[in-house]
Amino acid sequence: MASVPNARGNGSSLNARAFAPLLGLVAAIPVIVATVHAIDFGWYPSSDDGMIALRAFDVLSEHPPLVGQYSQSSPLIHEATYSLGPMLYWLLAVPAHLGPKATVLTMGAVNVACVLGVVVLAGRRGGLALAIAAAIAVALMSRSLPVEVPYEVWNCWAGVFPFTLLLFVAWSVACGDYRLLPVLAVVASYVAQVHFTYLIPTVAALGVAVGGLVAWRRLRPAARLRRWAIAAALIGLVCWSAPIFDEIRHDPGNLTLAYRIATDDHPTGGAKAGWKTAARAIGVVPWWVKRSRAQYERVVEPMRVPVATTVSLVLLLAGLLVLLVVALRRRRHELSAGLALATLLILSVALVAGSIPSSTLGFAALTYVLVWTSPAGMWVWLMLAWSAWALRPTFHREIARRTVASGLAGLVAVAAVATLVALGRDYDDPERLPPGLKDYPRVEATSARVAEAVAGSRGVLLDVPIQVRNSLTFQSAVAYALRRKGITIYAPRRLSREMGRQYQPSPGAYDRIVVIRDGDAPILPGSRPVVRIPEVTITIAPAR
């Protein structure tokens, strides 16, 4: 299969195959540097991270999780609802047993692989020129993301780079690269399961992939893609086996509850808010080329949209549609598929943003749920520029002139952009998400002391009132440390609904209570202090 349609026999595909892996690794410099920093400052799973590490640890237990992370949208229907599936936990199952460093390295390696895949697939589709353009775009896009995205396990962040890869895999499948169908099944399933807000753009990518492949197959009826399609279907079934089992086992199942949230009649921002967000995210100047925005900026920006920004989005959509018509008339299938996906991504941004509840919950969500708009915006602009260039009459002659010197120049350019992005980040940004105390060595030492103090217990109950200032940080960090030590733990209903049903306490199941309070809280009678620091006081009491 040619890397550049209608350009077989030139040196471009050879140069792309030679340089694309190097370009991808260089473009991943911001991811690599961020991961190294995380290991250097002793990242430890706490807050939401700790809950994810805990549930990932449970994958290899008698009670593996069947669903994803607890959703803050649950109050909308008064039922505990979760992200669609546990594939994030599957990914982290072994690293969670090995420890925090293994977890960070796993996420960093996965995200590096995603960047590498993006650039290699760009080279397959558009030769060396597109590989260079994609590498520069991904490196530049990294600057727009929160600094912790490359290594974080938090489900909102853990889908960003895999989603970026999904766009290129879907495009390649639409162009007839049917051997990537199993990869498409895995990546799309992972992204859709990791967080609700990825579902609509994932469906858009799958629609373009399947629709494009069907159109391509009509032109090449002899293509033997049946076994690849069957393999993809079987892999997809495995990926969704846990959510399907949960749906069968429980009434209502989590998929049903997720549907209820999606169709619940609650106030939302609506089409106007969706359009404004799309204008800010993708119109001039798009979010993906800006620096990472502070949390308050992520909330305020969609509310104040200059007229010029709105006009730029209209012109952008018009340009995409005009190029799509031209590509269809010239039978440039690969450009048609890429432009169609770009158009659908703009609509996806508007739909997702417009569906966010217009409440305190919704305002809080705006600080993190729309981070995927950066790779979506990158795709829109990359396809717009590439298609406009590719449809020029002299395009094929220019492609044929690509040389090794061009590849080396591109490599230098990518290295320069990626290095500048990596050096320009504040890796100790106090606004790093998820929220909570970021003194990781202190959190780890505190959790280790608690685990040592309750060693040999029949079972331990965590007692953590929600009003405790640092409860979010320490409750999951301590729970994860205890599980790694083989100690059975239980939690009150507020926590057990997030941790899993197996953590609901029963009479006689535990013999000690770990009480987590504010740092200045008084020691309760009958309790033994284990940790007393400004951030938190942790005591141990016998079971009542």
In short:
The protein has 544 residues and is mainly α. The protein has 23 helices and five strands.
Mean pLDDT comes to 92
Say how many strands there are: 5
Percentage of β-strand residues: under 5%
Strand order within the widest sheet? 2-1-3-5-4
Largest sheet: 5 strands, mixed
Please count the helical segments. Answer: 23
Briefly note the structural class of the backbone.
Answer: mainly alpha
What's the end-to-end separation, in Å? Answer: 70 Å
Shape: globular
How do the helices and strands follow one another from N- to C-terminus? HHHHHHHHHHHHHHHHHHHHHEHEHEEE
Describe this structure in words.
This protein is mainly alpha-helical and 544 residues long. Helix content is 61%, strand content 5%. It has helices spanning 12-27, 29-40, 47-57, 87-98, 100-144, 155-158, 160-174, 181-194, 199-219, 226-239, 241-249, 254-263, 270-282, 295-300, 307-329, 333-355, 360-365, 373-390, 395-400, 404-423, 440-453, 471-484, 493-499, and strands at 460-463, 489-490, 512-518, 528-532, 536-542. A five-stranded mixed β-sheet has the order 2-1-3-5-4, with helices on one face. Helix 8 runs parallel beside helix 10 and helix 21 packs across helix 22. The protein is globular, with a radius of gyration of 25 Å. The chain starts with 11 loop residues before the first helix and ends with a strand.
